[in-house]
Amino acid sequence: MNELHKQLQNIIVMKVGPHSDMSLLEIISSKKAEETIHAVHYWGYSGVFCQPKPVQEFCCNSAQAGVEPKLVLIETKSAYSSKSVGVVHEYSIDGINFTPFQAPVQLQGAHFSFVSRNLREVDGFSLDYYTVVGGKNDGKLLSQHIRYRVNKSFATAYIPGTLDADRNPTNKSIVWVADLVFPYAIWLRE
Fold it and tell me: Where are the alpha helices (DSSP H) in the chain?
């Protein structure tokens, strides 16, 4: 395991790409600008994987164990487009009580959002250094899980010597990493 993966022990990994007529670099730029206003940025998402309550539990357990949870964003070339994309105006940390955002955020067409800061590009990341946490693929290498239509997952760095993955991974790549911060994930409403 290399130094990068020692720093990224407990992660939530998500595929990201162009969205709503914005390139990934434009989205990243908007998130960095958003952080100057809110002290955090919001990375929106939808779907059945990594809904806010399990995200909050995973991150709280990680933080209580002394390991700061991270969000790892892996670029996909697939563009997302929708004719029904709406702008989000309110959020909730419990899925029940909603509060308006105090200033505009770039969250279109998402049902949930990760709450993070310090978005940065890192090189040398490999899915082969992680195992899936939870679900039917619990303990499986992340590289065997994040593919096809699976676009998000909880994962933890495995202990060297415990898996067949103790080899030099060949699929190292550049990813975007952010520090997940309380409340870690929120529900959104238009």
Answer: 3-7, 24-38, 52-64
Instruction: Tell me if 179 sits within 8 A of 37, measured CB to CB.
Output: no
Answer whether 30's CB lies under 8 Å from 106's CB. Answer: yes
Looking at the whole model, is its pTM more than 0.85? yes
Q: List Cα–Cα distances, 72 to 12, 101, 111, in angstroms.
A: 6, 25, 19
Q: Are 11 and 72 in contact (CB under 8 A)?
A: yes
Beta bridge partners of 19: 22, 80
CA distances from 35 to 32, 48, 55, 183 (A): 5, 27, 21, 15
Please tell me the distance from the alpha carbon of residue 125 to that of residue 150, in angstroms, as a whole number. 18
Peptide bond into 100 cis (omega under 30): no
Q: Are 120 and 179 in contact (CB under 8 A)?
A: no
Q: Give the pLDDT of the chain (190 residues) as one tens digit per residue.
A: 567 777 889 999 998 887 777 788 888 998 999 999 999 999 999 888 899 999 999 999 999 999 999 999 998 876 666 554 567 889 999 999 999 998 878 787 789 999 999 999 998 888 888 899 998 889 888 888 887 778 899 999 876 655 554 555 567 788 999 999 999 999 999 8
